[in-house]
Structures are given as structure tokens and as C-alpha cells.
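Action item from last week, closing it out:
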Amino acid sequence: MKKVRTILLGLFIAIVWSAQAAGPKYVFYIIGDGMGVNQVNGTELFYGELAGKNGPEPLLFSQFPYSTFVSTSSANRGITDSAAAGTALACGVKANNNTVGVGADSVPVSSIATAARQKGIPVGIVTSGEIDDATPAAFFAHQTNRDNRYEIGLDMLSADFAFYAGDRFMQPTREGKESLYDLLPRHGYTLATGTEEYWSKAGDADKMVIFPKRDIPYAIDRKPGDMCLADLTRCAVDFLSRRGEGFFLMIEGAKIDWAGETNHQ
């Protein structure tokens, strides 16, 4: 009996070690662009008022058992921008403002999403802003100017991630260049306009891009039928899960920053 227990204990330890060595199967990298402590506190106070409380109503993520802070300052400015901050978050290096996926020396750097893709892990990028904006671009693009939207779109296709979703390309073509929309199917992507079309096409697709029928609105302006970040996230989880290998998914709430910029005065 003692021998059996020893064997079982050994098997248990081996299973635990194997699980630890394999690492997490599902990685959700959630970014609130422009979301600092003040934005979180303001939101909790707002929900406290709605609940009739004299004080804040904690958000779910602020109650997680572990928390920390990360510095997203840029290499060349006292105040960062989304491009440098996104590069810090995605690639772990300090970058100059206005640059995505390159270090302070303008040399391309790889992101955590690219590292996952190189290991054969399906990768998804979801944002409530434009898919070629600075924060999502930091995970797949390498540009010294965040306004090189067409080139960022080309980098997006070259990155070969399994799933992209967000508002449409801001610069789908340049003079004398092919449209990014024409290049999508040639890179193996199936385009869905809206989540309803996603559900009808996903089963036959190898890789997917979802764009909304209309721009994704602020939550306070949302009307029935409008697409929201949660809709895109559900589609991403569904599509990436079909591969059965785990996945890496970046989800950006872009409109926190937009609202802050609109109301900073």
C-alpha cells in the first residue's frame, strides 16, 4: 500500500510540474487606453451614486487578489502618448512618442503577441477604436510614425495573427497602392461586417477580420443593434477557441482615452 501511495504521489507531482511547465493556456491582455487611477476611481464613485451608496462601488477588476503598476513613460518626452505607451505594454521597451513597435533607436522590436504567434499560439487583437490605431498597432506593427496607417495595415497582414476586430482601416489605400480590403483575402482573411455576419462565416474561415457596420459608439450613446467591445470579444473567444490550443487575446477599450481627450478642457 505504501508503494502504491508513493507511485500516486509521484504521478501527482509529475502532473503538477507538467502543468506549470506548460504555462497558462488562455491569456487575456486587457488594456484601458488612457485609464489611470483617477478614471477608475471616478467610475467607481459614479456606480456608487447609482447604487445609492455614500462612496464608491468597486469594479470587478479592482477587487482581484493581485495588482501592480506599470510605467508607460516614453523615451523622449515627459508625457507619453498611446504609441509609446502601447509599445511599452506590448514590447516591454521604452519608445519615442509617435512610434509603434520600434525602440528609441527606431529598430523594430517584437511584441508578446508576436512571441505567442511564433510558438504556434493563435493570437487575436480586439479594440473599440480603429484596428490600425496606435495601441493595437504596437502589437503587430513597426512604424516610426503612428500616422502611417496604410503601412500599419500592411504590417497587420504580415503579422499573420488569427483574428482582428475593431473599427475600419483609416487609410485603406495610398496612391498607386493596392487596397488593404483587396489584400485581406489574398492573405487568407475572411472579412465580416458586423457580428451577425461573423457567425455565418466563422465556421469556414481560417483567419478573420471583423469591422462594424457603423462606428462603435460610446456606451452612453449605444442604441439597440450597435456593436460593442463585448460583442467583438465574444467573437474572438469563439474563433480562437475553435483551434483548441489555447490563445493570446489583446482587448483594448480605446474610448476611455477618447473621452478624456474630448473633455480635458
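Closing note: The two ends are 75 Å apart (CA to CA).
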